[in-house]
UniProtKB/TrEMBL annotation:
Alphabetic keyword roster: Cell membrane, Glycosyltransferase, Membrane, Transferase, Transmembrane, Transmembrane helix
Transmembrane segments: 51-71, 132-153, 159-177, 213-239, 251-271, 312-334, 341-359, 371-391, 403-424
Swiss-Prot/TrEMBL GO biological process terms: lipopolysaccharide biosynthetic process
Domain Glycosyltransferase RgtA/B/C/D-like: 104-265
Record-linked InterPro entries: LipidA_mod_glycosyltrf_83 (IPR050297), RgtA/B/C-like (IPR038731)
Listed name of the protein: Glycosyltransferase RgtA/B/C/D-like domain-containing protein
Lineage of origin: Bacteria, Bacillati, Actinomycetota, Actinomycetes, Micrococcales
Amino acid sequence: MSAGTLVRRPRPGRAVPLPQLPTPPAAAPAPRAGTTAEPAPRRSARDLLTADRVTAAVTFAVALAVGLWNVTDATAFQDDEGTYAAQAAAAASGGFGPYTYWYDHPPLGWFQLAALAAIPRALGIGDGSELALMRAVAGLLLAVTALLVLLVLRRLAAPRTIALVAVALLLTSPLALTLGRQVFLDNVATPWLLLAVWLALSPRRALWAHAGAGAALGVAVLTKLTSLALGPAVLVALLAGGRWRGRSFSLTAFLTAASLVVTVFPLMALLRTELLAGDGHVSLQEGLEFQLADRSTSGSFWDGATDRHALVIGWVGQSPLLVVAGVLGAIACLTAARTRWLPVALACLALPMIAMTGYLPGMYVVGTLPFLAIAAGAGAARVWGALTSPVRARVTAGRGWRIATAGVAVATIAALGAAVAPSWRAEVRPLATARANDDFREAVAWVETHVPASDDVVVPFSAWSAVQEQGRGGPWNVIALEKVDRDSAFEAAHPDGWRSVEWILEGPTTRPNIDNLALADVGSALESSEVVATFGAWSVHRVTPSALERQVRS
């Protein structure tokens, strides 16, 4: 107020007028009785097609193409694959498997395989065999895994370009293109683990999301029990946001949901009176004892002569870029609470590899691959942000900055690709055109043509579905190799034991399994047989008991 300005004070007793406030806009009239309100404006297709959604759709499509490309013949069929394919076929009919279910794994894994098999079956994917159909399901699961890797990285605020590079690291990994496209329960459980992490990282910290994370973790455990190793990492991811209102409720919801889902397995055993070991029945106790203690040891990683050392070094040698990038990324992730769960996850997954001496399955590494890719992407995002934040503060954000980011990413990919291209090409290129199962198909076709349908045939589990589909009766006419010695129902169906078997289809794993599993009866049958046809690593044997054995039989 300038000097000399007079202020007129109101006289005593005179009302002071109030300042005029802006008039609020008139409310929309309520709809008349019998009429409806105006509908909310619809979102246009352009609004729905956000950059992240388009990126996710394209990523899934590309990953699906990679997952299905020559998926049937890129690698030879394995016995574990045949086991799960046979169990999935039985699950489609309401059973737990073609043979006695003995709690070696929870059955949820092959029930999921049976449900997912409807997709490739409806689309006509595969060569018509059950195992080829399950390979197509494995290719689909690889695509889902790649999509979830992208979504988790975007939830961690990784730039889109870096997230795509991490997905590319996964999809071009020789381990992902071999083990990641085979019918293993690990490939079924991995998407559930990634979903659990994605829900645990919910930016809204919604109670339902954290309960869903616990449920997803529980489903992963009921798919493959080794998934329980990732439980601490998912919990760290959930608590990474610090304290918030309702934190205790979220933690309770997570733990309760996970526990309720996991307890379905022992509850099922309890209701079937098969929880504890006893005479005359299988049990959950014996199944867990076999998995945790009774299997043959793989030795110590620190002993260079053991199977464990050779297996782990072989994994690293097959996908060195993914492993090195993932480990370095995990170290960078230690600097932020939001990403600290990643080194925890990799440590939990690495513990059985390098610190234990029990049995180490050859497909165990499958669950590690997507977390290595996420760690590589999240760590790269941390380093990129630290290096470019001073520059970004002086540069106007916009298209130019995004182009520069993409350019640096492309240059980095090109440099890394050039470094590993020779070894990568040697590992991956043959997978595109390989015919790894031609000998298998020829052997199965010979059995169909030359072996009478009434004869009993012992086959590796990898060939069980293919031979059984020839219309040879039930599981005690086409008999899985280890069931001759390990399933008491075989004796009921074949009182003469192995001598009642007429044919044996021998595959690459037949003799190693006889030795490793101490299958004495099958070994006797194989020793009392003669080869009648050979197809590469596969051969057909006619069992011919000796005169003494025939006398004992009579």
